[in-house]
Design brief:
Elements lengths: L3 H10 L24 E5 L2 E4 L4 E4 L14 H11 L10 H13 L5 E5 L2 H16 L3 E5 L12 E2 L6 E2 L1 E2 L6 H4 L2 E4 L4 H11 L3 E6 L13 H14 L2 E5 L12 H5 L5 E4 L10 E5 L1 H4 L18 H13 L2 H25 L3 E6 L2 E6 L15 H14 L2 E2 L8 E2 L6 H21 L1
Parallel strand pairs: 3-16, 5-9, 5-10, 10-11, 11-12
Antiparallel strand pairs: 1-2, 2-3, 4-13, 6-8, 7-9, 12-13, 14-15, 15-17
């Protein structure tokens, strides 16, 4: 597949953008290639500057649950654009999207819109600290919560450790109040509450960790977190930036029977435009300015274009849409598992409705970061390159997940499976 124009643009971009990109994973480093430059997209397909058409299972990293350039979403944004791109003032669209969010997250009495998932989590953490009057946070190894300084930490050895900053530029003092636990280890969390219970403001978790693989958590673990927070007066924050609006039954918390105190949202809520949100019951949210002392603001928060895209996206997410994606997901899981088994390839399919991941290793799929095979990147890089050459776009990282949309159909699923079968056959011949 010719990518000479993409290669040339990347060479030019290196002179103007850091690493030629505006978000690190786009650099394709972990799959040993150059980034692909896209020109246009429609439905399940993206077209690059070289004219190659690819079936897209990245979908802008999850927001495009109805595919690219959905005509109703485009029309809604265009209509709003004719009246202005930003007001910096209240407008009807904010109310309309807030109503739609509350319908799907009924533990939210009030919502605050921001412009990204990172902002949503950052603001939820600040609110939790302000509400409880405590400083410490508990987070989990393998959960990514955006580039929030206090949550950009990695775990050391042992049962549970204080955080160590995982990026230069983050003061140690910033993460000194962040405690790390392994996923799926309630004893570790119990230990932290025993040692610091009166100081912990919140437990922050992706209830369905989806940015370091798809690490499906047991409902019993999440229920245990709920009980510990209740016992010690801490808040439970669910980061559903990726998983939010992906389930017919409601949130991932709903699926597990666990109600958090605060929920952070992003991705799907913006329909492809930058939107995040967080919400909770009255007494927590009313600690926010202008009602309370906890300050948070955003010049472009509640942007009318983003509100219109988000509201239309959620309106289109009816039962039929979810049933369609579930049928595609079940088909993908069945057929892809058979192909991987046929070739004896050390990857497993992990799927939760419209989210999927190729878990490295032949055993039980990982539920914790430390269970992910050390050779994950190497296993995935060759597969990614081979599928790309056959016209199928997956995330350029072994630790990122795939996304199904309402724009995908059976032919896209069967095509991906056939491409994987062909790719693995070729890799066997050349090994």
């Amino acid at each position: 597949m010719n990518r000479s124009k993409s290669d040339a643009l990347h060479h030019e971009a290196l002179s103007h953008l850091v690493g030629g990109v505006n978000s690190p994973v786009r650099a394709f480093k972990s799959v040993h290639g150059n980034p692909i430059y896209f020109e246009k997209a429609s439905g399940a397909h993206v077209t690059d500057v070289d004219g190659n058409v690819l079936v897209d299972f990245v979908q802008s990293w999850g927001p495009l649950i109805h595919g690219h350039s959905h005509p109703q979403i485009i029309e809604a944004v265009h209509e709003k654009m004719l009246n202005g791109t930003s007001f910096g003032a209240p407008h009807l669209g904010e109310i309309e999207l807030a109503k739609r969010v509350k319908q799907r997250f009924d533990h939210m009495d009030k919502v605050r819109f921001v412009s990204s998932g990172t902002e949503a989590v950052m603001s939820a953490v600040r609110l939790a600290r302000g509400y409880t009057g405590r400083d410490m946070l508990v987070k989990f190894e393998g959960c990514y919560h955006g580039h929030v300084d206090a949550l950009m930490v990695s775990s050391g050895s042992g049962l549970a450790t204080f955080g160590i900053a995982s990026s230069p530029g983050i003061p140690q003092d910033t993460v000194a109040t962040t405690l790390i636990c392994p996923l799926d280890d309630l004893e570790a969390v119990e230990y932290l509450f025993k040692e610091h219970g009166d100081e912990i403001a919140a437990v922050v978790i992706e209830p369905l960790p989806a940015n370091n693989g798809l690490l499906v958590q047991r409902p019993e673990f999440l229920k245990g977190l709920r009980a510990l927070c209740d016992a010690h007066g801490a808040l439970l924050i669910f980061d559903e930036v990726i998983s939010g609006f992906r389930f017919k039954e409601g949130s991932y918390g709903d699926l597990c029977g666990v109600v958090p105190d605060l929920t952070a949202l992003g991705k799907v809520i913006g329909g492809g435009l930058p939107v995040g949100a967080y919400g909770a019951r009255h007494e927590i949210m009313e600690q926010l300015s202008p009602l309370g002392p906890v300050y948070q603001a955003g010049t472009l928060s509640g942007n009318p274009l983003a509100m219109a895209a988000g509201a239309t996206t959620l309106d289109l997410l009816d039962s039929g849409a979810y049933d369609h994606m579930e049928a595609l997901g079940a088909l993908l899981e069945e057929k892809m598992e058979a192909v991987l088994e046929k070739h004896g390839h050390p990857m497993r399919m992990v799927r939760m409705e419209s989210l999927f991941w190729f878990s490295p290793g032949n055993g039980q799929p990982a539920v914790r970061a430390d269970q992910i095979a050390k050779d994950a990147a190497g296993l995935y890089a060759d597969v990614h390159r081979a599928l790309l050459d056959r016209g199928y776009m997956l995330a350029p990282s072994a630790y990122e997940i795939g996304f199904l949309s309402t724009s995908h159909d059976t032919s896209h699923i069967l095509g991906l499976v056939a491409a994987m079968d062909d790719a693995l056959s070729e890799m066997e011949l050349t090994s």
